[in-house]
C-alpha cells in the first residue's frame, strides 16, 4: 500500500509510479479542493473516505476528459478501422489507481493530497469503488488503448454485478452487489444515442420483404466510461447499455389503484440489465440470459452502423451508404452477432441476403473460450422462436446455404452434414451457437496453442477440414500495468532498477532478467519484496478470517471459479493427505503451508457449492488441531474479486493450476501469478504448456496426464475404484470424507461428492492424485532452499514476456482485424495540433 512520501522522496520521481506529474501538483491540489468543496455540504473535518474518494476521482477524471475528447476527435478526422469488443461482463477492478498509473499521475496525486494536510487521503483509492465487471476483457481494453487502436468495448451496465459471496456456517450465500449505490464518477450517460431493441412478436412475409411486427420494445441507454492507454494520451471508450422501458409506468392503471400493474412492464423490461449471471436452471433464467445476449448485440450493432454511416471529416458524403465497404472499417466478434447483423443489414440497410451474409462473414471473427460441451451455448429452437422469431428464420436460411456448401464439398456424407448443421435435431431441437459463429466468421481462434489444437482435432474438426484457412491461435495475455505495476509496485521497482522501465510497455524486455539469476543482490531483493507482500497479506487474513498465519509458511493459492474441471477437489485431497502425514509423524520437520482456495460457485451449481462447503469443513478441522499448529492452515478466501486478487497474487509462493489436461482453454490467473513471482504446480493444460516453454520446464512443477493420456484412459475406461484400492493415502482421505471426519455433526454431508468421485468423475481426479502428491514433495524440498526457489522465480518472471495482453492484441490486430498497432503518442489536450 502507498505511504506518504517523505520530504526527500517527494523531490524524487519514481518512474514506475509516474515520472511526470510533479508539475501538475498545484493544478491537482486546486482541483481536488474544488471537488471536495462541491462534494461536501458539511464541515470538511467530518468528510468520509467516500467523500475524499469522489473528490480525488473527479480530479483525475478532469485530467482524463480532455484526452478522451481529443482521442475521439482524432478518430473522426482520421477515420481509422475500428474494432468493437463485445463482452457480457468486464471486471475492471479499481479504476482510480489504474487511471493514475496510465496517466503518470500517481505521485502527483499523493503529493497533492499530502499538501492539504490529509496524508490518509492517499489510502482512499484502495478502499472504495471497485468496478466489478471477464478479467482478460479488461486487460484487452487496456492494451487496445495502449497500442493506439481505435477500439470500443461494449457490454451491459448491470444494476447489480456478480454477487457478493458470503460464507455462512461454511456455505456460500449470495448477496446482491449494489455497486452503483453511491454513483460512479467515471461514467457518462449518453441518452442521445439510445437505441430500441425488439423482442417477441411475429413475422409477416410480403412481396417487399419480411416484417417483424407486434414486438415488445426495450430501450438501450448507453453509459460511457473512459479507458486510458499507458502514457500515450489515447483514451478509448467502454459503452455499457442499461435497459429502460419506453414508458415508466401506466398512469391510467396507477390512477385507478393498479399500483403493481403500473410499474410491472417497466420492471420486466429493465430486468435485462438488473443482474449479471441469472440462474439459468429454469426457463425464466434461460430466457433472461438469451435476452441479455441479444440486447447487448442488437444495441451495439445499431451503434456500429450509426458510427459507420457518419462520413469522414471533410468528406462530401453526408452519409455512407455503401455497406460493402463496412468490413474495411469495422471488426467485431461473432456470437448472436451473425444472425442479428444479417437481420440489421436486411431491414435497416436494405441489402440483399447474399450481400448481407458476405458482409457479415468479412466483418465477424470468432474467439472460442472453452472446450467443455456444456459451456458451448445451444439455445432451444422453441425459445428462439418465441423471443426472436425473425432471427430464427435467418438462422434457418444461413443453415440451408451452409449445408449446401457442405454437400458440395463432401458429397454423400450425410453424417458430416448432421454433425455440422447449425440445428441439432436429436431430441429437443437446438441452435448450436458455436457452429453459427464459425460459419459466420472469416477467422476462428482458440486462446492457447493446446486449446486451438484441440479445437481443430476434436470439436471443430469437421469445420477445420472444410475451411482450414479460418483457424488460428491467439494465446491470451494480461496487462502488466494492473497486474504488476499497480498491484506489486515493490517488484516493479526492483525490476526497473535492473532493466529500466520500458518493460511496462514491452514485456519481452523481462528476458533481460535472466542475466541476474545468479546475482546475489537481485535474489535478495526479489525475496524481500515477496516476504513484504506476504506480511501485508497475513495481516489482512488474520483480520478477516481470525486465523493466525505463519508468514514464513509457503503461501499455496488456488483462486478461480469453483468448478469440477478446475479440480479444487484434488487440492483438497492433498490437504487431507498432508494433514494425515503431520498427525502420523508430528515430530518431523514439515514444510509449513498456508493453503488458500478462493472462487465463486454459480448460484445454480450444486456440486460447486458442496465443494466450497467441503473446503471450509476441512479448514475447521485442520485449523483447530493443536498437533498440526501453524504447520498447515486452510483458508477459503471469501468473495474473491479483482481487489482481493491484487492482494493475494503478489503474496503467493505457489500457484495451483491443476485442471484435467485438455479442459482449460487458457487461463490468465496462471500468468498473473507467474508475473508476480509465484512458482506454478500444474498439468500440461491451457497456457501452462506455453509457460513451461517460456520459463523452462525445470522451473515449473508439471505433473499428471497429458491430453493423449486422458484420451487413452477414456478409450480403455476410467475406474476410480482401482486407484482407491491401490493407494492407501487416497483411500484414507476418501474414507474420512465419507465417514464424516470433517463433518461430525452431519456425517453424510459429503457422500454426494464421494459418490461423484468414485463413480461419475469426468475429470479423473484419482488418476492424477499419485503424481500430484509426488510433485508436491518436490515443491516442499525446493522451498526449504530459499535461494534456489528464488532463482526459479526469476526464471519465471523473465519468461513472462509472451503473456502480455499487448502481444495478444497486436496479433489480433495484424492477423485478424487488419489493423496496425502504434506506440505513437497523441498530442495532449493543451498541445497545439
UniProtKB/TrEMBL annotation:
Keywords of this entry: Allosteric enzyme, Carbohydrate metabolism, Glycogen metabolism, Glycosyltransferase, Phosphoprotein, Pyridoxal phosphate, Transferase
Listed GO biological process terms: glycogen catabolic process
UniProt GO cellular component terms: cytoplasm
Gene for this chain: pygma
Name of the protein: Alpha-1,4 glucan phosphorylase
Cofactor: pyridoxal 5'-phosphate
Keyword Glycosyltransferase: yes
EC number: 2.4.1.1
Enzyme class name: transferase
Amino acid at each position: 500500500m502507498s505511504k506518504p512520501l517523505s520530504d526527500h522522496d517527494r523531490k524524487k520521481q519514481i518512474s514506475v509510479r509516474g515520472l511526470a506529474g510533479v508539475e501538475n501538483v498545484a493544478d491537482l491540489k486546486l482541483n481536488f479542493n474544488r471537488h471536495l468543496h462541491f462534494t461536501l455540504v458539511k464541515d470538511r473535518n467530518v468528510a468520509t473516505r467516500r467523500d475524499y474518494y469522489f473528490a480525488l476521482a473527479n480530479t483525475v477524471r478532469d485530467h482524463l476528459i480532455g484526452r478522451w475528447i481529443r482521442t475521439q476527435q482524432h478518430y473522426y478526422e482520421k477515420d481509422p478501422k475500428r474494432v468493437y469488443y463485445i463482452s457480457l461482463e468486464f471486471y475492471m477492478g479499481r479504476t482510480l489507481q489504474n487511471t493514475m498509473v496510465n496517466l503518470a499521475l500517481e505521485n502527483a496525486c499523493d503529493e497533492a493530497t499530502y499538501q492539504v494536510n490529509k496524508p490518509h487521503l492517499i489510502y482512499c483509492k484502495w478502499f472504495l469503488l471497485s468496478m466489478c465487471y471477464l478479467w482478460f476483457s479488461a486487460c484487452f481494453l487496456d492494451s487496445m488503448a495502449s497500442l493506439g487502436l481505435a477500439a470500443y468495448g461494449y457490454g451491459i451496465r448491470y444494476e447489480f454485478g456478480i454477487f457478493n459471496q458470503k460464507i455462512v456456517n461454511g456455505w456460500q450465500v449470495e448477496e446482491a452487489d449494489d455497486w452503483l449505490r453511491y454513483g460512479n464518477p467515471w461514467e457518462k450517460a449518453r441518452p442521445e444515442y439510445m437505441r430500441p431493441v425488439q423482442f417477441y412478436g411475429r413475422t409477416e412475409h410480403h412481396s417487399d420483404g419480411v416484417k417483424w411486427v407486434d414486438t415488445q420494445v426495450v430501450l438501450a441507454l448507453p453509459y460511457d466510461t473512459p479507458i486510458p492507454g499507458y502514457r500515450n494520451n489515447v483514451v478509448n471508450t467502454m459503452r455499457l447499455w442499461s435497459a429502460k422501458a419506453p414508458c415508466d409506468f401506466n398512469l391510467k392503471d396507477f390512477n385507478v389503484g393498479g399500483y403493481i400493474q403500473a410499474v410491472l412492464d417497466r420492471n420486466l423490461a429493465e430486468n435485462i440489465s438488473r443482474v449479471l449471471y441469472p440462474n439459468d436452471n429454469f426457463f425464466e433464467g434461460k430466457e433472461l440470459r438469451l435476452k441479455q445476449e441479444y440486447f447487448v448485440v442488437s444495441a451495439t450493432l445499431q451503434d456500429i452502423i450509426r458510427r459507420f454511416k457518419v462520413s469522414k471529416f471533410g468528406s462530401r458524403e453526408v452519409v455512407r451508404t455503401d455497406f460493402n465497404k463496412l468490413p474495411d472499417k469495422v471488426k467485431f466478434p461473432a456470437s448472436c452477432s451473425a444472425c442479428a447483423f444479417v437481420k440489421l443489414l436486411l431491414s435497416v440497410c436494405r441489402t440483399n441476403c447474399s450481400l448481407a451474409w458476405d458482409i457479415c462473414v468479412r466483418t465477424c471473427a470468432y474467439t472460442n473460450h472453452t472446450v467443455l460441451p456444456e459451456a458451448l451455448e445451444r439455445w432451444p429452437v422453441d425459445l428462439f422462436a418465441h423471443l426472436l422469431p425473425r432471427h430464427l428464420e435467418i438462422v434457418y436460411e444461413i443453415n440451408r446455404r451452409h449445408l449446401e456448401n457442405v454437400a458440395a464439398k463432401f458429397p454423400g456424407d450425410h453424417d458430416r452434414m448432421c454433425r455440422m448443421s447449425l440445428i441439432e435435431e436429436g431430441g429437443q431441437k437446438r441452435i448450436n451457437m458455436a457452429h453459427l459463429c464459425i460459419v459466420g466468421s472469416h477467422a476462428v481462434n482458440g486462446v492457447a496453442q493446446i486449446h486451438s489444437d484441440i479445437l481443430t482435432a476434436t470439436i471443430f474438426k469437421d469445420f477445420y477440414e472444410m475451411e482450414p484457412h479460418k483457424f488460428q491461435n491467439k494465446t491470451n495475455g494480461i496487462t502488466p500495468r494492473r497486474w504488476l505495476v499497480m498491484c506489486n509496485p515493490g517488484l516493479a521497482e526492483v525490476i526497473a532498477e535492473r532493466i529500466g522501465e520500458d518493460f511496462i510497455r514491452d514485456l519481452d524486455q523481462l528476458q533481460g532478467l535472466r542475466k541476474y539469476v545468479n546475482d546475489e543482490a537481485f535474489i535478495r531483493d526479489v525475496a524481500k519484496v515477496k516476504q513484504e507482500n506476504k506480511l501485508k497479506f497475513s495481516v489482512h487474513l488474520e483480520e478477516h478470517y481470525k486465523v493466525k498465519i505463519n508468514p514464513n509458511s509457503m503461501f499455496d493459492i488456488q483462486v478461480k471459479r469453483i468448478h469440477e474441471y478446475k479440480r479444487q477437489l484434488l487440492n483438497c485431497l492433498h490437504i487431507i493427505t498432508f494433514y494425515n502425514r503431520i498427525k502420523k509423524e508430528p515430530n518431523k520437520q514439515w514444510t509449513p503451508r498456508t493453503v488458500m482456495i478462493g472462487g465463486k460457485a454459480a448460484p445454480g451449481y450444486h456440486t460447486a457449492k458442496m465443494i466450497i462447503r467441503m473446503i471450509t469443513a476441512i479448514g475447521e478441522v485442520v485449523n483447530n488441531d493443536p498437533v498440526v499448529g501453524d504447520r498447515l492452515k486452510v483458508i477459503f478466501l471469501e468473495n474473491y474479486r479483482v481487489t482481493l486478487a491484487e492482494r493475494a497474487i503478489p503474496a503467493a509462493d505457489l500457484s495451483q493450476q491443476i485442471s484435467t489436461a485438455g479442459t482449460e482453454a487458457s487461463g490468465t490467473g496462471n500468468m498473473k501469478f507467474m508475473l508476480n513471482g509465484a512458482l506454478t504446480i500444474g498439468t500440461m493444460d491451457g497456457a501452462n504448456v506455453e509457460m513451461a516453454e517460456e520459463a523452462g520446464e525445470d522451473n515449473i512443477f508439471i505433473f499428471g496426464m497429458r491430453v493423449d493420456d486422458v484420451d487413452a484412459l477414456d478409450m480403455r475406461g476410467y475406474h476410480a475404484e482401482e486407484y482407491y484400492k491401490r493407494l492407501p493415502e487416497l483411500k484414507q482421505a476418501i474414507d474420512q470424507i465419507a465417514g464424516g471426519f470433517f463433518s461430525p455433526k452431519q456425517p453424510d454431508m459429503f457422500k454426494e461428492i464421494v459418490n461423484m468421485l468414485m463413480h461419475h468423475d469426468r475429470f479423473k481426479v484419482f488418476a492424477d492424485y499419485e503424481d500430484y502428491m509426488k510433485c508436491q514433495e518436490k515443491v516442499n524440498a525446493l522451498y526449504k532452499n530459499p535461494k534456489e526457489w528464488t532463482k526459479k522465480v526469476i526464471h519465471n518472471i523473465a519468461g513472462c514476456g509472451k503473456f502480455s495482453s499487448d502481444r495478444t492484441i497486436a496479433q489480433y490486430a495484424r492477423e485478424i482485424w487488419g489493423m496496425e498497432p502504434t506506440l505513437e503518442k497523441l498530442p495532449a489536450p493543451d498541445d497545439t495540433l
